[in-house]
C-alpha cells in the first residue's frame, strides 16, 4: 500500500503528529547544542513533553502521564536543584562544547544508527496497516503488572534499592575520613 | 511444583535477604565489620548450596519453567527457569562471590563507615547477575543486568577521594549505560520482529522460529545485533573493550575481582541463554559475527597485554583475550555449553585470586599497580609469589592448570563447529600470550636482595587466593570431575 503525499496531509492525525514532533525534535537538538546548562535542561522539558504527547497519541495514556509526572515533574526539578546546589556555573559555559573534535564522528554514527534502525523498521512494517485501537486503560496495565509481570516488577524494586544504596554510598560524608 | 518454584528463585532470595539484613544490622548494631562478615559469607555459601539443591532437583527430573502466578498459566509467559544451566550459574556465582568477597575484605575494612553499603551492593549485584542466567524473559534479563551494573558502577567509584576512581566510575557508568540502552533497543526490535519477549513457553521466540519462515529478517537482524553489542560490551570483547583497562585500573583494587569475575560469568550465561537457547536456529546468521568478534578479542587482547606495564591493565587485556576464547564455545551451540561452563567455573577464580594478590601488594584502595611492584614477591611473601605464578600459568593455558583444559575444550568446540581458522588464531594468540604471563612470573621471582619489605597478607585474602589456586590446580590435574558435572549444565 502506498500513501500519496496528498492523502497523508488530508489525515488530521498526521498534522497533530507534525505539530508535536517538530518542536520535540528541535528541542532535542537544542538540548545537546546549547551552551547554557539551564537552557539545555529547559529544552529537555519541551522534548520530554513532546514525547509524552506522542505516547498519548498512540493511546498509551499511562506511559504518557508517567513521562510528565516522573521526568518533567521530578527528574528535571532534580536537575535544576542539582545545578543550583552544586554551584555549577550558570549562564553560557564554553566548556560544554569543548569536545568539538568528536562532534562529527558522533553525528555520523548517530545518523548511521538511525538510518539502519529506521530502514529495518520501515522494511518490516511497510505494508501492514495498524488497526484502530482503544487506548490502553491504566487498569488493564495494572492487572498485567501485578499478575503476569509481578516477578520483574519485584526485581525492579531491587534495582531501585541498589541505586539508592549506591547514591548514598557515593554522596555520604565520611566523618572519620577512613577512605584514604 | 510449589517447593520447586521457591527453589528456582532461592539464589536471588538468599542474597537479597542477606543484603537487607546487612543494611538493617548496620543500623541496629552499629557499624562493626565483624557483624556482617559472617552474614555476607553465609549468604554467598547458602546461595551456592541452594544452587547444589537446584542441581539435584534438575538431575532428578525436576525443574522447568515457572510463572509469576501459577493460576495464570493460561498466559504461558515463564519468568524463571530452573535447569542445569541456571543451577550451574547458582553454584559458580555463589562460590565465586564468596571467594571474591574474601578478596575484597581488605577494602571493606578500609572504607570505614560505608562498608555495609559495599557488602549490600555486592550481594545485590550477584542476585542480579544470577537473574540473567535464570530467566527466559528478555526483560528480566535486562533488569538483572541493570541491578548488577548499577551496583558495579558504584563499587568502581567507591574511593571517592581518588580522582582516578571517580573517573573510572563515570566512564563505566556512561559507556555501560549506552551498552544497556543498545541491549534494550535490541530487545524491543526483537519483540517487534518475533512478537515475543520470552525464549521458552507458548508463543516464545523459539516457537516463532519453528513456525515461521523468516522472509524479511532486517528488523530481527538489527535486534539480534544490538543485543549482541550490549552483551559484548559487558564481557569486554573487542572492539567493545576500551572501557575495561581504564575501569579495572581506576577502580579500587579490592573491588575489581568481584566486578570482573561476576560480569564475565553472567554475561556469558546471558549470551548462552539468549543466543544458544533462543536464537539457535539462526546460528548461521550470528555465528560468523561472533567468530569475528572472538578473533578480534583474542588478537587485540593478547597484543595489547604484551605492552602493559600495569598489572591491572594487563589482567584487563588478558580478560579481553579470554572473552575471545570463551566466545569459541558459543559457536558450537548447545554442544559448546558444557565447555563454556567449565571455563566459567575455573577462569573467574583466577581473576579473583589475581586481584586479591594485587590488592595485597598495592593496597586495597590503590588505583594503579605497576608490574614492577611485584618484583621479588617470591621472597617478600613466598606464598603470594608462588600462588600468583599459579594464576598466571592458569590464565596462560599451561598444561596441568585449569586454564589449559578450558582452552582445549573451547578449541574443540570451535573446531567441531567448523571454525578451523579460528582455532588456528586461538592457538597462536595462546602461544604469544605466554610471553606476558611469563614476564609477570619472571618479575615475581627476580629482583635484588635489597628490597626486603615483607608483605603480610591478611587472613581473608590468604583464603581467597588459596581457594582460587586450589580450583586452578585441582581442575587442571583432574579435570574430568568437573567435565562430568558441566555436561548436564545445558539450557532447557
What can you see in these coordinates?
The complex is a heterodimer of chains A (180) and B (492). The N and C termini of chain A lie far apart (68 Å). Chain A has seven helices and no strands. Chain A has one domain: Four Helix Bundle (Hemerythrin (Met), subunit A) (Up-down Bundle). In chain A, 71% of the residues lie in helices and 0% in strands. By secondary structure, chain A is an all-alpha fold. Chain B has helices at residues 2-8, 10-28, 33-59, 84-110, 115-133, 138-156, 163-194, 205-211, 218-234, 243-250, 253-278, 283-306, 311-331, 337-362, 377-380, 382-396, 402-416, 420-444, 459-477, 480-486; strands at 64-66, 80-82. Chain B contains 20 helices and two strands. Chain B starts with a helix and ends in a 6-residue tail after the last helix. Chain B has one domain. Classes of the chains: A mainly alpha (180), B mainly alpha (492). At the A-B interface, α5 and α7 of A face α2, α5, α6, α7 and α9 of B.
Structural class of chain A: mainly alpha
CATH superfamily of chain A, please? NADH-ubiquinone/plastoquinone oxidoreductase chain 6, subunit NuoJ
| Structural domain count of chain B | 1
**What is the CA-based Rg of chain A, rounded?**
21 Å
Query: How many helical elements of chain B?
Result: 20
Give the C-alpha Rg of chain B. Answer: 21 Å
Are there runs of chain A of 5+ residues with pLDDT below 50, and where?
none
Name the helicity range of chain B. over 70%
Largest sheet of chain A: none
Number of strands of chain B: 2
Extended strand count of chain A? 0
Main CATH class of chain A = Mainly Alpha
Gross geometry of chain A: globular
Provide a compact summary of the structure.
Chain A has 180 residues and is mainly alpha-helical. Chain A has seven helices and no strands.
Topology:
The complex is a heterodimer of chains A (180) and B (492).
Chain A: H1 5-10, H2 12-33, H3 37-57, H4 61-85, H5 103-125, H6 138-145, H7 150-171
Helix pairs in contact in A: 2-3, 3-4
Chain B: H1 2-8, H2 10-28, H3 33-59, E1 64-66, E2 80-82, H4 84-110, H5 115-133, H6 138-156, H7 163-194, H8 205-211, H9 218-234, H10 243-250, H11 253-278, H12 283-306, H13 311-331, H14 337-362, H15 377-380, H16 382-396, H17 402-416, H18 420-444, H19 459-477, H20 480-486
Antiparallel strand pairs in B: 1-2
